[in-house]
Amino acid sequence: MNPAPDFADNLEELTMQTIELNVQGMTCSSCVKHVNASLNQLAGVTSVEVDLTAGRVRVTGSVEAEPLITALDSVGYPAQLATSTASDIKDCDQC
């Protein structure tokens, strides 16, 4: 038995992360399709969730934010890393 594939699978799981981006210019379902297509083609991306109303995109995978931002910028959707605001953070009383 060769343990290498299991190690590679475990390594990929260890490097998985979720990145949230604020994306400008998304106004319709066609925009959502373009954003999904541009991000899903990147190596390491495993899932893309677009929230059109909030103007946010959540990307999960073994990828850093910069290539995601570059890909979106190149198709006309300026993006930046989303930052948490006080209203995004729940206190234990609100759980």
UniProtKB/TrEMBL annotation:
Residues 17-80 form the HMA domain. CDD domains: HMA (cd00371). InterPro entries: Heavy-metal-associated_CS, HMA_dom, HMA_dom_sf. It comes from the Bacteria. One of its GO terms (molecular function) is metal ion binding. Pfam families: HMA (PF00403). Keywords: Metal-binding. The keyword S-adenosyl-L-methionine does not apply. The keyword Metal-binding applies. This is Copper chaperone CopZ.
